[in-house]
Structure formats: C-alpha cells, structure tokens
Here is the input.
Amino acid sequence: MKTNRLNLFGIFSAAAASMVLATGSAHGMDSENTRWTWCGWGGGGYFWSNAIDPVNPNIMYLGGDVVGMYKSTDRGKNWRLINNGLHEYGVYSMAISRSNPKVLYAMTPNGVARTDNGGEKWTPLPETFKSRHNLSSHRPGSVRALAVDPVNPGIVYAGSAMGVVCKSTDGGMTWSELDYLSALESGDSPDPVAPASGDGFMWAAFKSVANDWKHSGRIEKYYDKGQDWTGMKELTSSFYAPSGAPTFKVALVVQSGADWKWEHSAFVDSKAGEWVDLSFDLSSINDIKDIRMVHVWVMANGAAFNGELGIDAVRVKPQDSSRSDIVLGEWDTAGANEGWRPSKSADSPFITAIRSSLAPATVAKDPVGSVVVSEADPSLVFICHRKLGTFRSKNGGAAWELLDTPKTSINISTYKGDPKLLYGAFDKAGVWKSVDGGDTWTKFSDGLNANYGVREIRINPKNPNKVHLIAVSSWAGIYYGSDDGGKTWTGRRSFTRDYVGNPTEPDGHPGGKKDLSACTNLAI
Here is the structure.
C-alpha cells in the first residue's frame, strides 16, 4: 500500500556529508596525519526550508543557512550540494512548481534565485536584490515566503522581510509590487474621524512614556528663506486626540528673525474624541517679515500614550478679510506631507512619523510569513503578515481584502479538492479553520500546547481530514497530527533518527530517539 511520507525539516545541526579540517600543520596539510570529522549536514549550520517534487516524491530539496541547497533523488538516503550559480548560501524559503517541478525558486538574505533544471544551475534574479525590490528572507520570520502559480511556473509571488509583496509573470525577471495594504484603508473603521476642514488631515504617530515630564513631541515646517507675514494677524490650527486618550497640552510656535526667536501661544487642553481649536496672536511677534519656522507642540503631561494624534488646518489669517488665508497644512492629498516633518530635537522625540489621513496607516516593517496560491484556484492568493493578519485576493493580486483572522498570521494551507477549505497557522493563537474560502474562521486548537507557536500547517493531499502541523517554542519543536479535520490533535516530540540519510551524531540518543529542535518547514 502506498503511503504519504511526512518530512520535518528544522533547526538541526545535522545534514549531509559536509566536513571540516580538524587538524593540520600551520604551513600545509600533512596528508598522513590529517583527520576529518563530521561537522553535521549544512556545514554545522541549520536547515530552514524544503520542498518535495510533486510528481516524483523521491526527489527532495533542503535549504540551509551555511552551505546553500541540497538535493536527494532517493527519498533522503543520499544528498548532494546543488549550488551552481546560487549567489547566496543562506536559503530560508523555497517554492517548487507543481506543473513543472524542475522549476524552483529560492529566497536568500539578498533576493531570489531560480532554477529551470532541478537545481543543476541557478540564475540569480537581480530585480529581487536589496538594491532593487529587496525581496529578501527573514530569519526566522520567512516560512513560505515564495509561492508559484500551480499552472504557470512563470508566475511567482514573493513576500519580503520588510513586508513588501511582489508578483512576477516572467519567471522573476521583472516584478510589480502588490498593494495589499490598501485593504487596511478600505476596511470599516470602528471610530471614523472626520477632518476639521477639507478632505483630510495629518495623523502624527505619538509615543510617550509614563512620568516623563521633560520631553514632548513637535511637528515643524522649516523655510529655506524667511517668510514675510506682514498684514497677517493670527496663526490657527485644529488638534484631535482619539477616544480614550489622555489630556494633552498643545500650542502653536513661531520662530522668527536672525536669532530664530522662539515664541508660542497659550497651551490648550485636548478633548478625547473631539477637535479643539488652536490660535496664536501674531501682533507682537518678534519679526513678522522674517518667519523661519512654525511648530505644533504637543506635551503629554507625564502620561503614557502610543497611537496617532490628528492635526488639521494650519493657516495664517490676514487682517484684511478680503485677502485669502495662507495655508500651511491641510493634508487633503494622500502621501503629501506639505513640507511638515517630525522634530528631531532631543527634547521632542515623542512624534516619530506623520501621514495624511487619506494614506494607509503607518505599518511596521515586519516580515511576511507566507504567500499562498490556492491549489484549486490560482486566482485565489493569500498573504500571511506576522503582525497585520491575513489578506486575500480573488483576482491574482489585483485587489485585496483583510480577513477576520488573528493578526499573528504565519501560514495557510489550501486543498486542491475544495477551494473553500483552509487551515491557518497563527503562532500562539493556534490553528483556525475556514470552510467558506476565508470569509469566516473557527478555532481548532484542542490538544495543542499553548506554549508552542504554530508555524506551518499542511492538509493531506489525499484526505482533507488528515492535517499536519509543526510548532515551536524557543529552540524546541513539536509535530501534531489530526485525523478528524482538526477537532483533536496528537503531538509528539521524539522521533527515530535516520542514520542512513543522516549519519551525524549517531551516539548518545537512547533507543535511537531524539527530540525535535525548532522545526521550520513541513512537507508531505
């Protein structure tokens, strides 16, 4: 009876017949006395990625962090290096084409390489290098950061260590960035904020710590040449603190003249969930004909806060009502900061970034765990972002939506026989299952050790009720299997060592058993 072979690959200092020089003379090698010793597969390094030929399961690939790529053609009994042309020897993610298994892509700390002949020769893809799109791996964040269209081996997706996801339709020669973060914009906001004026306003990322009374946050607009505000009477603006925020003290600041004299308005208390008006009388300003810099100054009064604050409608109003205001900031265009910037002064570190409210929220540059193309429907693509959650496209990446899953999204498994069946790995949030293509999700984590983070999950290609996963806790790994569609899970850490395929460290393991270290990839 033919059975499926389960292969666990992880952070083991054990791999192929790599050797290092252990003893020798300082001026040359003494061939009679020189001795060699095993240093472990991978030159003593670790394994991070794997793939199995979907047509011929005897062919297997391993990617390590020291000496690149290995290949076995006898189901893991023997391995050889296949690094010809590979530009980097750390391979942290790989993908194999289902329609043409000789095509593989390998992701390294500096971009991606492709092979068209099963690893005999690799071609680096320059557009993926750090100097271009920077489609580079993250250790240990990249799990399945490469995905190949199951029908067309020239269509490939790559998710980077910096959260960028790109698509290529010509085998990796050229790439286009996918705007999946637009789904964060289009989602319904639980507390939408209308501008004080116009179509948009500025969001300022503000982070203060408790009991810090010495520091503040400022945004500033600097003029290369002094501005003449003769005939202007008042500087105004509006300030917004979100619901639940502490009370901030806010003032407007003008610096003028050759000595850059600092003058500010009276401080105004913010009101959580409301816009408050700010005003600065310019009648006694130091040098109205030589305005050098304008600031909006925010003090946290010793309160801790980590979020965004709104600023809108910074204007200079004239004494003559027939004249128009001088608009210093409205932020009615996405991506336009209108000359404003966060202050870099040592006394004002609390505002770290700014953006128009019409632009996507500032996103931490965290790694993409996996990009997954549905085996049943190649137009269905998923992005697993380790901090922002799971994104879905139904048209090959042209449009995206954010799914209602845990934010710690690492990996998704699809099933060729049913495009609506999905399992997701969400680190310590466990395993979640969807039977409607990702519209709704249910947690299926009974029996899983909550101290382990689920890293990768796989549906058995012959039986959708059989599901496999690997999970990690620091340097420890564990394997779980389910025979009832994820309702219950059975785990094990101890496995019999394969002394034929892996001759390293043959002694010191009672009964030939060894506990898993931190598993990184799972293949069936």
Residues 182-186 form the longest helix (5 residues). The CA atoms of residues 62 and 521 lie 10 Å apart. Residues 1-5, 9-32, 186-191 have pLDDT under 50 and may be disordered. The two ends are 17 Å apart (CA to CA).
